């Protein structure tokens, strides 16, 4: 493995030397970004709010629940604009709404920012739009600019405030995208919609509502460059505003977004955020019973922080303007946990370890030391918590809750922390370990379980793909499923895994793969002992099958690598999820 690292460093040096100008620009952009992103990276936890006229009926249309996400009801039930007005707009009267209480709850939960739907796909403006009367002040019995009230409450309570704005879809304006069901619409061009409604509304949101920290675009679709630019240009009205990656392909924005799922690994070198509803639906839905448990919510926050991302957790105010007790309870419970443990979340960066058996880790690095926050989900029964591969000298270890000092001992395998018998927190107990100097962690290679089987996942493989070429890459599984190696069109590209074997013997090797081509040939085995393997089609790229691909002989305990290399000329690209070794 060392050799690859050296090669990689040399590669980077050559790149840097070859383009000094590009490198310098990159560094400057990075600094500008660093200053702008500082508060967001520190914040880690924000509140997302989906609130609109769909909330008035709780996603119900004439006794039916047309969709699993209430903000889509107009589309899913194909509700004509005129009926949507009668059923939802005319009924929107959230008299219990109190911006101060609402923002207070976000604050109590430990959230540092709030992003709310100023306009969702239904086209209804939740602010006093001066470009369209289809807004909360002019069209509902409530007549209050709830965005203004929230902006002010956030400002008062020190919560950064941001708008969600659906820029392409608009099921109300005759030029907006998405409404193919209401035949009474007299169509105009999309550019007209942008000029008449979207661009001026965005401009208004960015000039009349005080400091706006975030602009959150959604559902990018193709449009003219002029239209994009006109939407984008308004964000310059707020210095330091942070935008997501959903305006359009050419506009990468400041951070990546993941919707409803947590990636297996955080994207490297990018800021990112997971948005997720606290229940099943984004917008308030009467029949929604899918509230995530407090355990899931806290562990999600920890999991995301341990991968270096932010958690934007969505709540859904009702037609009355309040949250259901299920949501309030959960936010308060998160706040209780944060009261004790937030130091391990705010301002933390991603875990320096691979997968940990007992939970997750976040860290903070300083000039002469580092702090590790060990989030223990599964409290060890023997009272010994192994921090694998940690070589640094430990200065101090203690429980976050109550600051009880803990004994540690160092050995080849890493640092072991001695824990009390009872976990202070059933969901996630934080053990703080302060070490001297820069972090020094040895990679601990995977080894077979007691029954002699070892799973080598795609995301554990070392890819020889010309440093990140698109011809062989690791792709994220759908909905948090296993990642897989894909786009393996280059027969020169190959992969390998390193591992430790403590029981010598014959190991059967199988692979979980998919192959669209008729058949494919590759070589597999320990370096210098590669065997040719032929696999038959699994029909479609998404049809995975477990295939036996040979045997390897291990005559003594030690570290090994297993390689898979395409057979030139007879290679058909395959997708690979994992390789499994099994002691015969
Ligand atoms: O605002 C929330 C969603 O409404 C919005 N993005 C988040 C933040 C979103 N718009 N489109 N999509 C997400 C992707 C498409 C989802 C759909 Fe469906 C699947 C539309 C129809 C099927 C989910 C299920 C929404 C309605 C039914």
UniProtKB/TrEMBL annotation:
Gene3D superfamilies: Galactose-binding domain-like, Glycosidases, Golgi alpha-mannosidase II
InterPro entries reported in the protein's UniProt record: DUF5077 (IPR031712), FUC_metazoa-typ (IPR016286), GH (IPR017853), Glyco_hydro_29 (IPR000933), Glyco_hydro_29_N (IPR057739), Glyco_hydro_b (IPR013780)
GO cellular component terms listed in the entry, alphabetical order: lysosome
The keyword Signal appears for this protein: yes
E.C. number(s) listed in UniProt: 3.2.1.51
Glycoside hydrolase family 29 N-terminal domain: residues covered: 29-343
Source organism superkingdom: Bacteria
Signal peptide: 1-23
Domain DUF5077: 484-566
GO terms classed as biological process: fucose metabolic process; glycoside catabolic process
Entry keywords, A to Z: Glycosidase, Hydrolase, Signal
GO molecular function, one term: alpha-L-fucosidase activity
Keyword Kinase in annotation: no
A Pfam family annotated for this UniProt entry: DUF5077
Family label: Belongs to the glycosyl hydrolase 29 family.
Role, per record: Alpha-L-fucosidase is responsible for hydrolyzing the alpha-1,6-linked fucose joined to the reducing-end N-acetylglucosamine of the carbohydrate moieties of glycoproteins.
Protein name, per record: alpha-L-fucosidase
Taxonomic source organism: Adhaeretor mobilis
């Amino acid at each position: 493995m060392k050799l690859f690292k050296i090669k990689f460093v040399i590669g980077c040096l050559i790149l840097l030397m070859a383009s000094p100008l590009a490198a310098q620009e990159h560094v400057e952009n990075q600094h500008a970004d660093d200053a702008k992103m500082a508060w967001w990276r520190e914040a880690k936890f924000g509140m997302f709010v989906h609130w609109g006229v769909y909330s008035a009926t709780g996603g119900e249309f004439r006794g039916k629940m047309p969709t699993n996400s209430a903000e889509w009801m107009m589309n899913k039930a194909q509700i004509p604009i005129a009926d949507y007005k009668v059923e939802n707009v005319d009924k929107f009267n959230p008299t219990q709404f109190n911006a101060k209480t609402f923002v207070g709850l976000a604050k109590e939960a430990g959230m540092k920012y709030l992003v709310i739907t100023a306009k969702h796909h239904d086209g209804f403006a939740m602010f006093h739009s001066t470009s369209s009367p289809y807004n909360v002040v002019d069209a509902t019995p409530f007549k209050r600019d709830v965005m203004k009230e929230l902006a002010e409450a956030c400002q008062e309570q020190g919560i950064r405030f941001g708008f969600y704005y659906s820029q392409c879809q608009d099921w109300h304006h005759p030029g907006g995208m998405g409404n193919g069901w209401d035949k009474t619409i007299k169509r105009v061009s999309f550019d007209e919609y942008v000029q008449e409604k979207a661009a001026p509304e965005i401009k208004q949101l960015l000039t009349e509502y005080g400091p706006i920290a975030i602009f959150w675009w959604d559902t990018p679709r193709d449009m003219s460059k002029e239209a994009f630019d006109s939407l984008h240009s308004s964000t310059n009205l707020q210095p330091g505003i942070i935008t997501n990656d959903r305006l359009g392909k050419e506009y990468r924005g400041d951070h990546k977004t993941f919707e409803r799922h947590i990636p297996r690994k955080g994207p490297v070198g990018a800021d990112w955020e997971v948005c997720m509803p606290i229940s099943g639906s984004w917008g308030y839905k009467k029949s929604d019973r899918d509230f995530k448990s407090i355990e899931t919510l806290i562990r999600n926050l920890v999991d995301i922080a341990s991968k270096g991302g932010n958690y934007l957790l969505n709540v859904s105010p009702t037609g009355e303007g309040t949250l259901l007790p299920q949501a309030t309870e959960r936010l308060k419970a998160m706040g209780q946990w944060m009261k004790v443990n937030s130091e391990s979340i705010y301002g933390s960066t991603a875990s320096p370890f691979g997968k940990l058996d007992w939970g997750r880790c976040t860290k903070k690095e300083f000039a002469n030391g580092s702090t590790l926050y060990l989030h223990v989900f599964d409290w060890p029964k023997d009272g010994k918590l192994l921090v694998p591969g940690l070589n640094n000298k430990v200065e101090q270890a203690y429980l976050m809750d109550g600051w009880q000092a803990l004994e540690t001992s160092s050995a080849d395998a890493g640092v072991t922390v001695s824990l009390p018998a009872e976990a202070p927190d059933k969901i996630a107990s934080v053990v703080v370990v302060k070490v001297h100097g820069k972090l020094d962690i040895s990679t601990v290679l995977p080894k077979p379980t007691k029954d002699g089987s070892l799973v080598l996942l795609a995301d554990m493989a070392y890819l020889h793909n010309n440093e990140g070429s698109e011809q062989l890459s690791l792709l994220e599984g759908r909905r948090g499923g296993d990642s897989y190696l894909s786009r393996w069109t280059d027969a020169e590209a190959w992969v390998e895994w390193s591992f430790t074997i403590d029981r010598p013997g014959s190991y059967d090797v199988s692979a979980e793969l998919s192959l669209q081509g008729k058949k494919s040939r590759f070589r597999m085995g320990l370096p210098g002992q590669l065997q040719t393997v032929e696999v038959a089609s699994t029909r479609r790229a998404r049809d995975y099958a477990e295939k036996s691909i040979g045997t390897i002989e291990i005559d003594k305990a030690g570290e090994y690598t297993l390689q898979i290399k395409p057979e030139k000329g007879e290679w058909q690209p395959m997708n690979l999820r994992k390789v499994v070794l099994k002691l015969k």
